[in-house]
Amino acid sequence: GEGWLGRVGEAVVSTQSTGVKPHWSDQMPLGTQRIKIGSERGRLRVNSDLEYYVSDPDSFASNLYETREFELTVIPSGYPIPSLTSPWILDIDLDFFSTQNPFRPILGPHFMKLKNLFAFHPDGRTPEEQAERRRKQLKELKRMCKNDPELAGARDCVAKDEEIMELGGLFYAAQQTDLPEHVSSESEVLTMIGEVKGMLAVEETPVAVTIARSEGDAYSVAHSVDWIQKQTLGMLQKLWPVQQNL
Question: With 0-12 CB in 10 A as exposed, 13-18 as middle and 19+ as buried, what is 63?
């Protein structure tokens, strides 16, 4: 959330971004949103009525300073990209094609229960009221993760993972249960790469292309991420040939 959007907002002159979401992701609604980025107590925050931000107290704040507005347009994979402003940067996350939630095997049979417990459903109030309601909900859930006897089994699941325990134990792990996940077949990946290639067949060439993968934290699917990267690089080479090998 705050991380990628904040870096884009700080780093480029343009205040527009287009995000493409795969058919299985529901993190962001389709359409165009105006989002404010700024600082609160020395930390980067976002002011937006999107559930994605309102439900995350570490991202949302209503009183910001040194703000700038950012226009985010989200479109489905395969649809034409809106008019591009020049220069533009292409950023590809390989998790777009296939991703897994590494907390599912860690939490095992407790995963879905925690996902339902930590779910947040907007109820039509203002973003500030929604954020405050979420803060209260998380405060109670944090208490439950620490003391509730019914979650003892889930606590045992994370107790042996030193990194998770340092980050907050079960409370931290449970907050990751709502992340998108879809392990794609090779045919699905190739279809999506074809869709992306069609979307990128535009007159303006990007001034830079970045590719990210989440192998270290296991969101990228280990057995296929190298192959997905190779297919992605091949697609880019066909669109914008270069002399050196990618």
Answer: exposed
Q: Please tell me the distance from the alpha carbon of residue 29 to that of residue 90, in angstroms, as a whole number.
A: 21
- Nearest CA to 102 out of 162, 211, 177, 155 is that of 177
Residue 146 banded pLDDT, cuts 50, 70, 90: very high
Instruction: Please name the residue that has the structure tokens 């989002």.
Output: 35
Residue corresponding to tokens 């962001």: 28
- Contacts of residue 140, defined as CB under 8 A and 6 or more positions apart, other chains included, come to none
Tell me the helix, strand and coil percentages in the chain, rounded to 5. 45, 20, 40
Mean per-residue pLDDT for 198-223?
A: 89
User: How would you classify residue 150: left for phi > 0, otherwise alpha for psi between -120 and 50, otherwise beta?
Assistant: alpha
DSSP 79: S
DSSP letters, 158-204, are HHT-HHHHHHTHHHHHHTTTTS--B---HHHHHHHHHHHHHHT--SS
Backbone phi, then psi, for 43, in 5-degree steps?
-120, 145
Tell me the one-letter amino acid at 9.
Answer: G
Confidence of residue 216 (pLDDT cuts 50, 70, 90): confident
The residue type found at 236 is L
Instruction: Of 229, 206, 196, 231, give the one whose Cα is nearest residue 90.
Output: 206
